[in-house]
Amino acid sequence: MITIENLGLAPRLHPISCQLNGSQLVGIIGPNGAGKSTLLSLLAGQLSATQGRVAFGGDNWLEASALRRRQSLSFMPQQPHADGALTVAAVLQVGLVNLSLSTAVTAEIARVTELLALQPLLQRTMASLSGGEQRRVHLARALLGDLPWLVLDEPIASLDIHYQLQMMELLRAQARTGKLVMVALHDLSLAARFCDTLLLLDQGVLRAVGEPAQVLSDENLAAAFRIQARWLCTEQGVGWLPQLLQDTD
């Protein structure tokens, strides 16, 4: 569980507060420029907050050492980078070295390789992969070490619909093992279908937090996205038909 208290980075993110439990897939949603990446980067230690506190494991996470961060949180930025000349296997091996894990390298690489179906790509260079294939490699790297807290910024960007569904199933399964998985998403139908909790950001303000049905209300969609939507809910999943709000002036 983490408790966020008045966490902010002026002027990009106004102070926000909320409490998030483990064993959850938490979706961070909002329009472009809403502050999603800023929030995740603050939690990952990539940016320094101008105010606030984050309690995790009994400590103020914002003051945690680099070693403690590496042992507890895995971060996938919006635009991850790896040397294009490296093979996929080498990228994963470097990830393990950076984590300073005692786990057997071969066994851990085999675990994430199987999770992301990367076996055919292991000996290919990163430069030879498509954008979606590279995304899967970076997600596999984020899963190295089986850490309790995953912070992923648009991990399904560039993926086709097959892999989007597969990755969301995987992330939900990761949460069910006890992890707190936080993921920035643009597809609201996938957020509604797979996430346990949503945080809706708008212009740097936390507009709503709660279950998807509560957060994705007509009022919130209109205020944050300037849209209205008809939701289609079945036993197989959730879909929606969004449309622009009509000006009433």
From TrEMBL:
Recorded superkingdom: Bacteria
Domain named ABC transporter: residues: 2-228
Gene3D superfamilies cross-referenced by the UniProt entry: P-loop containing nucleotide triphosphate hydrolases
Keyword Nucleotide-binding assigned: yes
The entry's keywords: ATP-binding, Nucleotide-binding, Translocase, Transport
Pfam families in the cross-refs: ABC_tran (PF00005)
Gene Ontology MF terms: ATP binding; ATP hydrolysis activity
Role: Part of the ABC transporter complex HmuTUV involved in hemin import. Responsible for energy coupling to the transport system.
PANTHER family named in the record: HEMIN IMPORT ATP-BINDING PROTEIN HMUV
Name of the featured protein: ABC transporter domain-containing protein
Record organism: Pseudidiomarina atlantica
